[in-house]
Structures are given as C-alpha cells and as structure tokens.
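Annual report, structural modelling task.

Input specification for the adenosine-5'-diphosphate complex:
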Amino acid sequence: MLKSLLIANRGEIACRIIRTARRLGIRTVAVYSDADAKALHVRDADEAVHIGPSPARESYLVGDKIIAAATATGAEAIHPGYGFLSENADFAQAVIDAGLIWVGPKPHSIRAMGLKDAAKKLMQEAGVPTTPGYLGEDQSPDRLKAEADAIGYPVLIKAVAGGGGKGMRRVDAPQDFADALVSCQREAASSFGNTQVLIEKYILSPRHIEVQVFGDSHGHIVHLFERDCSLQRRHQKVIEEAPAPGMDQATREAVCGAAVKAAKAVDYEGAGTIEFIADASEGLRADRIWFMEMNTRLQVEHPVTEEITGQDLVEWQLRVASGEKLPKTQDELSINGWAMEARLYAEDPAKGFLPSIGKLEAFMLGEGVRIDTGVQEGAEVSPFYDPMIAKLIAHGPTRDDARLALAEALDESIVWPVRSNAGFLVRALEHPDFAAGTVDTGLIAREGEALIPAALPSDEALADAAAAFAEQSLAGFRLNAPPQRKVLLAVNDELVAVELPDDAADQSLALDDHAEPEPILLSEDGQTWLVQPYRATGAAAGIAGDGAIISPMPGRIIAVEVAAGQAVAKGQKLVTLEAMKMEHTLTAPFDGTVAELNAAAGAQVSEGTLLVRVEASPE
Ligand code: ADP
Ligand code: ADP
Ligand code: MG
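The model returned the following structure:
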C-alpha cells in the first residue's frame, strides 16, 4: 500500500480522499491556491503546499506546479479527484514520467474516452449500443443539417469535447438547426477550444442511468451496479440515487454487462463511470438504453454506490493504484437498501440560481445523513470555483426511507448569509413524480416555478417572529395603532407587513421601553432569512426598490439587451452576466425606463458595480 499521497484538488472531494487515506495510514499532502489558504482540505491534510493565485488556471490546473509539490514533499502518488486535471491524459502521463503513481486509469484509456465521438465509435466496435446519430469528420453546416434531417427531430448537437452539461443544444425543428449549431460551436470554442460536434437523436422521456465500474492491473473488471441521475437542471445532476427506480434484474444485468464490456474495450484500471441514456417511455428496457459517454475518474455521486454496496471506493482506488487486486469479486458484491444524494449549492434559486458568495456565518446541516463537505461555519465561499458546498447522502432500507431522510436533513439546514438551494432540493424530493420514481431529465425544467421555494417565510412563521419582537418591544415598531395590529418587518432586503397575533399586539402596547430587538435567523423548509423589526431610520437601510441593478459578483458581461432611455417592463432582460461558469440574466424589477446604463458586452465587472438604473414609471 502507498505510504503518501498528494491530492490535486480542493473542496469536498479533497476532504473525502484525505479521510480514507488517513484511515489507511497514508500521509496526505494538500495543494491550495490563495483563496483556499484557510480551506478545510488544507487543515485536514498532514502537509499543504501553496501552488499559486486563486484562478484555477493559475493553480489547480497547472500540472507542473502540482508535480513539483509532490516531488518536494516526497509524495509517492497523486490523486486528481474529479474536475480539474482528472481527465487530462497529458497530466496523467507527466505524473507517471515524473516517477510518481497516478491514481487513475492509464493515459491511453483516458484518451480513448476523452472525445465523445471517438468514444462512441469505439463502443460501437465493441458491440455496446450507442445513441443513433452522426459522428463524421465532415463538419460543414450543410452536411450536419442533412444528417440531422436524416436522424429526425428532435436532435441534440453535442460538442465532442464537451462536459459538465456545456456545449449541447436540443433542436426541435429543421429551421432552428443553423442557429443552434452556431451557438453550440461558439460555446464549445470558448469552453473547450474545440468546435467539433456530433449529432444524436434526442431521446424522449430520457433517464440518465450510469454504471460504476472498477478495474485493476491484474485484468479484473467489475461493476458496482447502477445509479440514476435523471433529476437534472440544464443537463447537470441535482439529485442522484442508487439503485435506479424500476430497474428489473434482467435489465440491470444487461446494462451493467454492457458497462463492463465498455471498460474492457479500453483496458480500464481504477474507478470509472459509463453513462447511458434510456428511453423510459415504457419503463426501463434493455433494448432502449444506449451508451452516452464514459467519465474516467471518480464521480461526484460515488457515495450513493458506497452506501448500497458497503464499499469505500477511494480505498479501492488507492489499493488498485498500489498494485493490489480489486477488494471484491463480482459475486461478492450486492445491493443493500437504497441511497440518495443531493448536491447543496451556494446559489439562490429565487434569483435564477445565481451563485452566492461570501462568509458562511451560519452553516448547520441537518442530521441523520452522511455529509461530505469542504467547508465549515466561518468559511468563505469564493467566486473562483464550483459553487457546490456539500453533498448530503441518505441511506435506508427503501427508496422512501432514503428520500424522506434526505428531505428532512435539508429541511433542517441553516445556511446564512450565503444562499443555498436546500429549499429547492426539498421541493424536488417531495415532488409527486419524483416520489413515485417516474422522474425524467426534463422534470425540473417542466416544473420550473413550482420547485422554486417561496420568497418569504410562511405567514405563521412571520407572525411568530413579529410576536417575539413585540415581546421585546420597540416603540417605533408599530406601524398602525390597533385595531389593524400590523407591523413592518425587514425580511432579508424586503419589507413585509405582518399581522400580529391578538395577544402579542396587546403586549406590545403595554411595553414601550425602546429595547433594541436583535435580528433573528428564521429557517423554514431549508431556507433561511434574516428578520428584524423595521425602523424607519437605520435598521432597514439598503432595502431594495430603487431600481439599481448591481453586479452581484465579479464576472463578464456577455450581452446588453437594452439602451439608455429605453422603456422596460417588469421582468424584461437587461444584462446577461457570466460568472462562476454560469450565465445570469439580470431583469427589470418594475416597469420604467433605463435611466443609467454602465454595461458593455465583453466588459469585465467587479462585484457591486452599478450596471443599470431603472426609473419607475409614474403610477
Ligand atoms: P458529469 O461530467 O457527467 O457531469 P459529474 O457529475 O461527476 O459528472 O461532474 C463532474 C464535476 O466536476 C462537476 O461537479 C463539475 O462542476 C466539476 N468540474 C468540471 N470541470 C471542473 C473544473 N475545471 N474545475 C472544477 N470543477 C470542475
Ligand atoms: P456531459 O459530458 O456534459 O456530462 P453527456 O453526454 O453526459 O454530457 O450529457 C449530459 C446530459 O444531457 C445527460 O445526462 C442527459 O440528461 C442529456 N442528454 C445527453 N444525450 C442525450 C440524448 N441523446 N437525448 C436526451 N438527452 C440527452
Ligand atoms: Mg455526462
């Protein structure tokens, strides 16, 4: 077994790998950027090496610095985690050339699966069913359009170098093809530096089914059953589970068998995932599940497989990298119960899933579930990396046990002042279709608004808060004298009039001592609000409503949709900003005119920049 290991990653996955390494008695070395100097993974590791400035391309993506850090600390091996350099075959080769052990598949296996078109061709040769489509060299728009027509709409245009749900466009009708192609190629060029695309039949009622595979250097390959990752937003996974609902034994054997065949075709070693797309219009059927791509690394959602199989996949990776045989044979592996994982993001579902950054003043996640996280209370969520801050994983005897335990843990979570998607996750878990296991990848897009948590706490919760403040009493707190008994509360940055319960109103009249009630954090259904009594001066300064559209984080303007002086309607798009790998559209808060415009396409803006000021139309 290895004696020392450098982890070329950050966040929850770095902490996760360190945990297993420590249990196995392996010395751990972390690497970190400026922004991560105080990060949890740095504290958890035995040693840590600073590798550069905050942007990933100057630190976590610089292979030479990472190899130098391993050499300097005498680390024997490098584990890449997921993302960053994990699927970079040149880096894997450089690690090996430096005399270090690469915890991952051989570079030629990574290369074989690196581009989606080449991977699909290889799978076809190996006899693995693939989605029907065009994989050709001829990339002229006319040829691509002709191929799409022949496949039949809807089709999906995919960047061959794509990943993370980027570089994909669904096209429903022939007349939309040309525009979709241009926009797909533009995104592919900027994100992956490669404009090559393939065209696939768009599968209707699609479910994302994937199989965990594992190989060792002695020629053994096993699978650890399937996961279902159909609950997605913009082609990115949100909630994952294992096993897949509605999977019968024969179908499982077929799809897991195909996955093992795929792994054998690329001489696979270590942890990998074969992703399939299933047409679930008539349930899961072996003849309607097709290979989509292979991820040649540990996957974000690997914990659900760990929970149902009782295996530690990071331990498996480290044993295989040390030259040992796989810890279990196929016959020794079985499924125990059900596991479900939710990805907790620092983002605000109510504001178009805008990433949220800042200090985690409160970070308390619910109990009774496994939590894999890379942050703790007091940590900073920076704008430089992926906004995933934790994964919550529930395991129980049945799917409903796992689902309800997960919903409860999310429901109890308090995250503040950074916003989180916990409330959104609770609603997704409680959605009747998801509860019934009849999910497909379009559920979130279809349900849209219904899954967005309420903007404000319930009337009951606000009335309780108002009553609590009334008990502490504050003269200026009362808006109206009885009988209306209404008070104004500042809830985050909004003013809300709340009706006081009868008894509380009486109390507030009785006391008039100018005590200063403390603001409280109110948490309900996974959402957290700062609530305080509104005082006409001071306390609620900064309340929105002046029509100033401020850049919520550092980013780049990618489109300006309005001109100065233009009349705009509430909700109309003003400016699109790209930040934290995502696009965010800023919209008009009310009807009015564009009184000020400080945004130009292509410009880099810092957090807090006034981009647009909308002046309200006269009533
Ligand atoms: P898939 O690629 O099929 O979506 P995962 O769900 O395991 O598989 O996603 C890989 C993860 O790696 C995602 O969470 C993604 O945000 C993250 N990731 C991808 N590229 C990078 C990168 N350059 N830096 C940091 N994280 C990344
Ligand atoms: P990435 O590398 O970005 O993970 P994938 O090829 O794995 O790209 O596709 C991501 C997601 O897009 C899938 O999980 C699925 O939801 C959807 N998708 C991909 N191919 C198809 C298809 N042919 N039909 C329908 N949906 C698809
Ligand atoms: Mg994928």
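The mean pLDDT is 91.
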